[in-house]
Design goal:
This protein has 182 residues and is α/β, with parallel strands linked by helices. It has one domain: Response regulator (Rossmann fold, 3-Layer(aba) Sandwich), CATH 3.40.50. Helix content is 58%, strand content 14%. The protein is built from seven helices and five strands, in the order βαβαβααβαβαα. It has a five-stranded parallel sheet, sandwiched between helices. Helix 2 packs parallel to helix 3 and helix 6 runs antiparallel to helix 7. The longest helix has 36 residues. The radius of gyration is 17 Å and the shape is globular. The chain starts with a strand and ends with a helix.
Length: 182
């Protein structure tokens, strides 16, 4: 049974299948979307450990999907690997250096895919640390807010636990991939 879920959003069936074929069998569940709308639905429902997103998509562009992800703190915490065969068009909208997501230029080989996944994981950890530091600087006050604030604090604690669980799983994933490549 697969213990790592990856959402691959790309209008090319060849790319989606290539990603699936390059990953070690049995360890990953690859969920595929052929356009941005379908991709957003999967991101919101599949609870992925990693998102691989093509920048140029039909129905809803990869740029629009990226913007939706950035607006939602829960989605923003998921490691993101942006893909494109036209890096210059990506950098027109998102200037380098890419701090909180990794970039994979198409076409790619297995080594580049694995390195892209590693980079996405590391950059996601960096973002999580920054978000955690900002939360520590601005604690939520429970005076006057009552039960609602306590519920929000409990939800935040739950989400932080989920993020830590996902980080552990992705660390195991990266270790497994490293082992397979040796």
């Amino acid at each position: 049974m697969a213990n790592h879920k990856i959402v691959v959003i790309d209008d090319s069936m060849v790319i989606r299948r290539t990603v699936k074929d390059m990953l070690p069998p049995g360890k990953f569940e690859v969920v595929e979307a052929k356009d941005g709308l379908q991709g957003m639905e999967l991101i919101n429902t599949a609870n992925p450990n990693l998102i691989m997103l093509d920048f140029f998509l039909p129905k809803m562009s990869g740029w629009e999907v990226y913007q939706e992800i950035q607006r939602n703190p829960q989605l923003k915490a998921i490691p993101l690997l942006l893909m494109s065969g036209r890096k210059d068009e990506v950098t027109d909208k998102i200037p380098e250096p890419f701090e909180y997501f990794a970039f994979l230029e198409k076409p790619f080989d297995q080594k580049q895919l694995v390195q892209g996944i590693r980079d996405a994981m590391e950059r996601s950890k960096k973002l999580a640390q920054i978000l955690q530091q900002s939360e520590q600087k601005e604690p939520v006050s429970t005076s006057g807010g009552g039960a609602e604030v306590e519920q929000l604090n409990a939800r935040i604690a739950h989400l932080e636990a989920e993020v830590n669980k996902l980080k552990k799983q992705m660390s195991q994933l990266v270790g497994f991939i490293k082992k397979k490549l040796q």
